Amino acid sequence: MNNKNKVYTKKVSSKNSQEKYTAKVVYTPLKDLRFKQTQNKTIKVKVLKVWISESKKTGEMWSLEAHVIDEEGTQMQLKVNKDNIDMFLGKIEDGCVYAIQRVTLQVPTGGYRTVAYHYFMWLNKYTKIQRLEVDASTFPTKIFTFLPLELVPGRKNDNQFYTNVIGRLHSISNIVIKKVEEHDGTKDVNMREIYITNDDGGETMKITLWGDLATTIDDGILDSNENAAVIIIVTGTFVKERMGKKCI
């Protein structure tokens, strides 16, 4: 057994008698999982974020997905295909810790990835998942890798990974209402543009915020902090080109 694996114990009742015994549960770190060798492995992870991936045109659910992390800080993207969503919907929640057994690993072949890890983790009809009542603070906080603003243009239409940026808020527009076509008709959606710069002010990047995100920044935030820099972190974005300029 890998000496870095962690061993925990729990009481298990025998089916044939009232006798109780202690069974050892060995949790395998995510970094030690190997392709096609996960059948008898149990992992212990904290869910950082869970979401449904769906078609904007039809509303069809494609997959249930989550961003998870283990106690050593290894992060992985978890997926459930549309045929098995009902088995796990509502059973995986943000901020909770789970023991998961019988997962499948897959080498990513396309589409976006929330973390730069060499495997996806799939839950299937044979997967066993149990919520653990443990102290979630033993897990590291979410870890981001920020792309320098001067390198953002090179990520245009590169959807392999999300782009995360950090910078000083330079300016902010008013919220405007845009009409957006969705599967159930046309909707009015909030839209706001902000501009951030790097430390020396040499690079400026436009970021467009849609929906509820547009209201997360107060209109007067720059006026109320005129003597201090306002630092903005934006994660999970794609880089596009608008009117000949790269933006997020």
Taking all Cα atoms into account, the compactness measure Rg is 22 Å
In spatial order, strands of the major sheet run: 7-8-5-4-3-6-9
User: So what's the CATH class of the largest domain?
Assistant: Mainly Beta
- Helix fraction bin: under 10%
Classify the secondary structure makeup into a structural class.
mainly beta
CATH architecture of the largest domain: Beta Barrel
Tag the structure with descriptive keywords:
248 residues, mainly beta, OB fold (Dihydrolipoamide Acetyltransferase, E2P), 7-stranded mixed sheet, 5-stranded antiparallel sheet, 16 strands, disordered N terminus
Please describe what this structure looks like.
- There is one protein chain.
- With 248 residues, the chain is mainly β.
- It has two domains: 30-132, Beta Barrel (OB fold (Dihydrolipoamide Acetyltransferase, E2P)); 149-247, OB fold (Dihydrolipoamide Acetyltransferase, E2P) (Beta Barrel).
- Helices cover 3% and strands 45% of the residues.
- The chain has two helices and 16 strands.
- The protein is globular, with a radius of gyration of 22 Å.
- It starts with 5 loop residues before the first strand and ends with a strand.
- Residues 1-5 and 7-22 have low confidence and may be disordered.
- This is Replication protein A 70 kDa DNA-binding subunit B/D first OB fold domain-containing protein.
- InterPro entries: NA-bd_OB-fold (IPR012340), RFA1B/D_OB_1st (IPR003871).
